[in-house]
Amino acid sequence: MQNKVIIGNQKMNVTAGQTRKFLNVFVPAVEHINYQIGICVPYTSLAVCKRALKDTNVIFGAQNVSEFERGAYTGEVSSEMLADIGCKMTLVGHSERRKYFSEQNSQINNKIKQNLRYNIVSVLCIGESKRERTAGQTQNILCKQLDECLSGLYENELDNIIIAYEPIWAIGTGQTATAKQIEEAVDYIRKEISRLYNDKASKNIIVLYGGSVKPDNVKSFMGIKNLNGFLVGGVSLDAKAFSELIQVYAGKSNKK
Ligand code: PEP
């Protein structure tokens, strides 16, 4: 994975046909971008991505994965199945999965371990709620999430992990974290990786920010030290807006 990255998360918002139409516009608009672009789609859109993204600079992924290898787990989709269809990454631990499906850090840790067996990059989402931030608990929350989700992983396995700092209160709300809040969180995440592993691992790990990033606010985050890019929800549903955001980040747009 390159160290400058933008990943879209389309959530449960698109059919396979809509994904095809989206990619018809999106792929040509970003074909000259020379950093890593990815899109996480519903399972039912993966086959369309496999065909449409062959020989392009856009990788695709799922939004979730089973914590189990295989067997009697009705409704689950395994890392092996995702690798087989060409998935290069999955989100794990998105706050919506934690909130609506009660996903725990120990399960997220299992998911990461399954992905590692099949060479799939895990985009590990972590972040605090508004109440936790107000109570001064942000660092404690990030620390617990990192410790438990990365438990038992070796340093070399971090090459297949991306960390997305996504404060829950900024997701889909239009309320972004400030550049200072993001920088503090990113610094803390890197400090914690250094404590758990070492300085080299801390320097090398890819850290993204997610939470209401748009074409017209992305510039305000571009100066953040040690941030490698963005995880983008709502805007990634609109091929034009998402490619505009990607171009602004590449420095190729006139957007102020
Ligand atoms: C997300 O869901 O990961 C996200 C960042 O959403 P949004 O960009 O809509 O806030």
CATH topology: TIM Barrel
Low-confidence stretches: none
Order of helices and strands: EHEHEHEHHEHHEHHEEH
Give a short account of the largest sheet: 8 strands, parallel, barrel
Query: Approximately how much beta-strand content do the residues carry?
Result: 15-25%
> What gap, in angstroms, lies between the N and C termini?
29 Å
Account of the protein in words:
The protein is of the alpha/beta class. The chain has a single domain (5-226, 246-250), classed as Alpha-Beta Barrel (TIM Barrel). Helix content is 39%, strand content 15%. The protein has ten helices and eight strands. The protein has helices at residues 16-30, 46-52, 79-84, 95-100, 105-117, 130-134, 138-149, 179-196, 199-204, 239-250, and strands at residues 5-9, 36-40, 58-62, 89-92, 121-126, 161-165, 206-210, 229-232. An eight-stranded parallel β-barrel has the order 1-2-3-4-5-6-7-8, surrounded by five helices. Helix 1 (16-30) links the parallel strand 1 (5-9) and strand 2 (36-40). The longest helix is centred in the last third of the chain and has 18 residues, at 179-196. The radius of gyration is 17 Å and the shape is globular. The two termini are 29 Å apart. It binds phosphoenolpyruvate (PEP). Residues 9, 166, 171-172, 210-213, 231-234 line the site of phosphoenolpyruvate (PEP).
